[in-house]
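Example 9 (inverse folding). The structure is encoded as follows.
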């Protein structure tokens, strides 16, 4: 499998005074296309407004920085206006119309990761805006718009022509937006920084897994996700997804070393990753990470709503389940060496604290 797995930063696609939209390009990160994965990032300045739109892909949004307002309209449902903040994960199934607004001084930054298997272009999201210079109104004649919405020509011209911006605009500070309601978060949003931990290992790391139990909408999206925080110089056990899922990882904070082993035992990636980079681990390939002294945090999506992983080191290691005789024969080693191998890591699982 001769595909470049080098981690990449996102490139600017469009933007203005209200904010900027970035995306990872499948020409620079070929695994996006191969794995039918899209990845993008939205950064909204104060009073930045991402116009209402829907996408050709189901996605998971993760708030990397700041706070703001998100409007979501599920098919044939009423609009839900939701307060969002750093650490929030939001499931956005097919057919969802959404908008975003930032009224705070701090930049609002949101990561989008999703499945492009039904998209117009593999490895890339295509957004369809309801308004603006590239909105759907602009594709229809005045006659069609007027007849569809029972409007006169003057009103139609205002609807089509009054918003010159495209995608992202900056509103006047006096503009009124609907007030978000905390109760609307229920079932729509999970804050990964506040949710109960699925794994918590002292001096090792912590994990929150996003699945159909804590955010049922991910079942409709068809993706699972997790937020992993690895302590300084700690190691994440080598492991792989055993249900043919791809793992798409965005480095939220910090840096560290990564190795990926693939077919025929070849090391296909050895590099240092840092905040802002994205990389993808192919199906069944084994990945391991070691954080730098400052630690490392990452958000991943897995292309199944309830992912299953097999770890190759630690107390849950698949190797530890094999009989001693099989391991001796498989490694072609003495019982003493096999016993030494088996006797290590009997209490640590998934994360290993730095050596003393």
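The amino acid assigned to each position is listed next.
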């Amino acid at each position: 499998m001769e595909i470049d797995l080098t981690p990449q930063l996102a490139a600017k696609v469009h933007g203005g005074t209200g904010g900027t939209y970035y995306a990872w390009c499948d020409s620079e990160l070929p695994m996006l296309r191969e794995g039918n994965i899209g990845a993008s990032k939205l950064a909204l300045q104060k009073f930045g407004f991402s116009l209402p739109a829907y996408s050709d892909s189901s996605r998971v949004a993760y708030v990397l920085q700041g706070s703001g307002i998100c409007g979501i309209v599920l098919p044939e449902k009423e609009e839900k206006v939701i307060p969002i903040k750093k650490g929030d994960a939001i499931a956005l199934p097919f057919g969802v119309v959404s908008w975003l607004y930032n009224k705070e001084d701090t930049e609002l930054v949101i990561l989008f990761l999703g499945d492009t298997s039904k998209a117009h272009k593999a490895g890339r999201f295509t957004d369809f805006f309801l308004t603006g210079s590239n909105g759907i109104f602009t594709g229809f004649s005045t006659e069609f718009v007027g007849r569809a919405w029972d409007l006169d020509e003057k009103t139609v011209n205002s609807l089509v022509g009054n918003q010159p911006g495209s995608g992202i605009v900056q509103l006047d500070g006096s503009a009124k937006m609907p007030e978000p309601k905390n109760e609307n978060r229920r079932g729509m949003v999970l804050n990964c920084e506040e949710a109960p931990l699925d794994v918590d290992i002292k001096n090792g790391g912590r994990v929150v897994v996003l699945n159909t139990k804590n955010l049922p909408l991910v079942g409709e999206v068809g993706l699972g996700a997790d937020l992993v925080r690895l302590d300084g110089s700690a190691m994440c056990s080598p492991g792989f997804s055993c249900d043919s899922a791809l793992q798409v990882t965005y480095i939220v904070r910090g840096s560290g070393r990564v190795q990926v082993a693939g077919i025929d035992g070849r090391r296909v990636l050895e590099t240092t990753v840092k905040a802002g980079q994205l990389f993808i681990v192919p199906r069944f390939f084994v990945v391991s990470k070691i954080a730098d002294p400052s630690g490392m945090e990452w958000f991943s999506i897995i292309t199944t709503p309830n992912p299953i992983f097999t770890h190759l080191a630690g107390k849950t290691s698949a190797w530890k389940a094999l009989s001693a005789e099989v391991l001796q024969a498989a490694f072609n080693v003495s019982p003493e060496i096999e016993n030494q191998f088996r006797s290590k890591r009997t209490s640590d699982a998934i994360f290993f604290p730095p050596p003393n």
